[in-house]
């Protein structure tokens, strides 16, 4: 579906006799709900994983780099075929995981990274020198759609051409956005159209799409759940 087709579908859900925004809801607000629905679906299912569209270009003396817009989580960072070490925020041995005495002074090709120190930034260790200036690291991201469904349809971050006004979700999951938007619309408190029962029905429908989306992502990534005994207890 295109963005326009999604809006028409939503109008019909809110008012079966309407081919335009029903009274009390603006097209702008409903479009924001649709966009939020796509973002919520990504957060709850694991869509999308991307290791082809986002990079980080090193600069001399710079160890902090902004995380690309519309990122949910930075998963890995690669320097060519070399995977940089990831420092977890709950590390208990600072001297072993991230030597603070070296973090601000060690220079050379980055070996490790962390995202827990400054919101919205990747911190590298070591700090690049002139020898690394211009080197490009590859980011493996868990992200939202590459562009905001309620946005202008501008060229997405990472380059390329302006995307069509359509959700990035696979077609089988696109109605999840409509279900979320209907849930939000029916929950508006200052309208006579508020209907908590309908809102819950649409939220339940959205959760059904999320369940299917989680299952699909598990298949894409060949994830399996296994139950076994801790080897320490085997005899």
Number of helices: 6
Instruction: Please tell me what the overall shape is.
Output: elongated
Rg computed from alpha carbons, rounded to a whole number of angstroms: 22 Å
Instruction: Please write the string of helix (H) and strand (E) elements.
Output: HHEEEEEEHHEEEHH
Task: Report, as a whole number of angstroms, the end-to-end distance.
Answer: 58 Å
Instruction: Provide the structure class.
Output: alpha+beta
> How many strand segments?
9
In round numbers, the mean pLDDT is 85
Helicity, in percent? 25-40%
Biggest sheet, in brief? 5 strands, antiparallel
How many domains is the backbone divided into? 2
Percentage of β-strand residues: 15-25%
Uncertain runs are none
List the helices and strands and how they pair.
Elements: H1 3-14, H2 27-45, E1 49-50, E2 55-57, E3 64-66, E4 71-79, E5 82-83, E6 85-86, H3 94-97, H4 100-103, E7 112-114, E8 121-125, E9 136-143, H5 175-185, H6 196-220
Parallel strand pairs: 6-7
Antiparallel strand pairs: 1-9, 2-9, 3-8, 4-5, 4-9, 7-8
Helix pairs in contact: 1-2, 1-5, 2-5, 5-6
């Amino acid at each position: 579906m295109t963005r326009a087709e999604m809006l028409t579908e939503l109008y019909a859900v809110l008012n079966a006799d309407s081919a335009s925004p029903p009274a009390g809801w603006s097209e702008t607000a409903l479009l924001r709900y649709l966009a939020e629905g796509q973002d919520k679906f990504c957060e709850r299912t694991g869509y999308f994983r991307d290791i082809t569209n986002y990079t980080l270009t090193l600069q001399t003396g710079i160890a902090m780099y902004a995380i690309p817009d519309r990122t949910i989580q930075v998963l890995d960072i690669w320097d060519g075929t070399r995977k940089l070490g990831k420092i977890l925020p709950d590390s208990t041995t600072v001297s072993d995981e991230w030597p603070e005495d070296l973090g601000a002074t060690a220079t050379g090709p980055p070996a490790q990274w962390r995202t827990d120190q400054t919101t919205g930034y990747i911190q590298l260790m070591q700090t690049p020198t002139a020898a690394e200036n211009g080197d490009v690291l590859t980011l493996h991201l868990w992200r939202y759609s590459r562009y905001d469904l309620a946005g202008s349809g501008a060229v997405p971050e990472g380059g390329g051409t302006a995307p069509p006004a359509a959700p990035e979700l696979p077609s089988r999951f696109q109605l999840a956005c409509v279900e979320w938007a209907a849930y939000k619309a029916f929950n508006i408190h200052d309208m006579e159209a508020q209907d908590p029962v309908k809102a819950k029905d649409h939220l339940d429908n959205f959760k059904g799409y999320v369940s299917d989306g989680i299952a699909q992502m598990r298949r894409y990534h060949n994830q399996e759940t296994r139950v076994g005994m801790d080897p320490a207890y085997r005899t």
